[in-house]
Fold this protein.
Amino acid sequence: MPTQLLATKLYVPPLRAESVARRRLLDRLDAGLMHKLVLISAPAGFGKTTLLSEWRASQHGTDMPFAWVLLDEQDNDPVRFWSYVLAAVEKARPGAGANAGTLLYTLPPPGATPGDLRAQLQVIVTALVNDLVSAQERAGTLPLVVILDDYHTIHAPPVHDSLAFFLDYLPPAVHLVILTRADPPLPLARLRARDQLIELRAADLRFTAGEVEVFLNRVMALNLSTDAVAALDARTEGWAAGLHLAALSLQGLDPAQAQHFVKAFAGTHRHVLSYLTEDVLLRQPEAVQTFLLHTAILPYLTAPLCDAVTGRRDSEQMLEGLANDNLFITPLDAEGQWYRYHPLFADTLRARLQQSSPDLLPVLHLRASAWHQKRGAISDAVRHALAADDPSRAAQLVEDGYKRLVMRGELVTLQRWLDSLPRSLIQTQPKLALAYALALAYSGHYVEVEDRLAQAEKAMAAAGEVSGHDPVRGEIAVIRAVLASVKWDGQCSLELSKQALELLPAARSDEEVWLRVLALQAHANCARLQGRVREAEAYYFEALTAVQTLDSPFLVQAITNRLGQNQLHQGRLGRAAHTFEGALAEAEARGGELWWFSGELYAHLSQIYVEWNDLDRALEHVRRGIDLSRQAHNHLALLDGHLALAGVEAARGQVDAARSALEQAQQLALEVGTAYLEQQVVAHRVWFSLSQAGSGTPDAGVLQWADEWAGRRVQAMDEGFPLILCEFQDLLLARVWMTQGRHDEAITLLTEIESAAEKAGRMAAVIQALVLRARAFEQQGDVGRAKDALVRALILAEPEGYVRTFQDVRFALYDLRLTIDGGPPRSRALMAYLDRLLEAWPDPRSPRTGTQE
């Protein structure tokens, strides 16, 4: 979520003193509490905001909460839009939005498409809907009204799509009110057909003749004749802003002057703007005119900002005076710290300034840019720099702020900045090229990323400052390392992450820490994939230590997820389960699940419960993981989930369900298009086929397919896949050879796997290799060596509670128990472990079963 939210965008505008009670419209709004959406759509100046302020005031005593968001162009970034909506909801109904707020840390992943963004926004909105339902249960029957003011400033399709999704699933006691100058691209026709929409338009908002008379003569105390009131009513056609403008001009005029004004007053837009210039602005003292013109460039006004822009020191008194004189300025908070001009008045002022002092406009914008920069409001600083037509300054600001935007997920804003800059600047400034590379990387344009990185290197070389740009070179290496890791290019990524860590400076700022954490994580991932699990663990912990200084739960969860996988390779099932469960608990504690990685966490946790033979809990976890991954539109996590589901269903004896899960995993691997993942799925299909063959005579078709796979595996031993996958494939290859009667070859291969894995600390592979070797010896009739391998496997597996790994050697386990009964303490410990294992698979020869398999 953006770290800086402008509080004044969330204030409910106070009721104007010069308002007219409009009971007919208030009744329509009351009726809106029986509908999903109230749409108030009319041109500027029709009193939309004033009406909503009056309606809120009419609810005084009911304590009905209002969540009000004043929107502007900057909110076309979906992250910013929903950040403000969630902040408004949280302000109105504390606690309603915490889960969704946590999800805003979830950055669009590499490979994200418009569909991925849509799905991710739906995940956030789903969490918000669930939060609102929970909050409603705590609040009772009191409804919540969410108001989006100036929605016509929104034109980004992702915002419209996500808001439409929100409307579809809006809880019954939550009502949305949209104030806009033009109909939004929402499913209005469907809402009308379902009687879920109340509409107020220009025809409804126009003042009636009676309301015009009340406004002019009672509220504004003008004491106009009936004819004068009727004339203004006719010329303004009940347009509230026009009436207000006319009333302000009529104040202080004698009857003759008032009569002349009424006759000359025109109600068209052009005439009103002309009037604002000639009969309002020019009637103000010169100092007031200058202040108005010089501050018209500011969307929001506060005294320190106005002082910086105008060079004055009395802006606070000036703003208070303008507000007291009702000079088209609206206070945005109860303290009178922030204001804004009426949009039409601001337009008039800017047009006048452009006409009278065009050279002053860029100067004023640069002053505003500098003020915002000092306060860390980089978005506003960039906007004013661009308005000043100073691309060099804007470029420098982008260089200074792009990393923070990427960390917060405001990629739309970053892309808009970059698109506003001249291409020549981006081509010659290394950091701008890097910013572009990051924006492209998170949107999945991998080929273009490398082009931008090459562009950055070219710009550095052209500047002759390669040696002085180690931080930039380090950042380039980080981006390349992360991309290589994502594409499972293990060795390449390992080299790049090493280079990045060498080139990065000592991490001091959040941005430098963030880059270092990415490099550490990439290095750890690659070390894990290459089987160097001890090295990987050290780097994961170093990354976790470094990331604690950042408020980035998404990154913490990403690292923790991979750390747990590394612990699985080490054979530390208990430690891995603790890691996965801790990450999920942390996500819950922060107000909701970080769904992007939570799906993977559940999938990996289910694999542990399968090994522990707790199949009910395994199935519960894997289904939860698949559901979250599907909602997050995370294809990689979904693939892991279906592979885990295949393992659960196979263990439960649900052959068709396991086969279906593998088919879905294969389809996902093809969609992702990564060779490593495709081979991983194929290996799991081989494992499944062999497991179905069981201890009896395997199906000939299964054996033929496994034989063909084994032949291809032997020919592709050096194809360059990460060691972790190759090791899994080699274990499968040994199993295939055993079905072919090639036991000596299988034993040799398993011995090599065991030796290499034990040396590196991959004890899960050691246990699997020992169990398979024991089975091979058993099939050869070599009982002694089978027992030795099995005992060693049991000694290693007992502390972690392995169960299902020993399924295929359960007959040997029964025989082994008979040979160690009553032995030394070590044997008695093994005997207790054997008893637990045999409870899962009672031996058919045991008198306790009384049956034969």
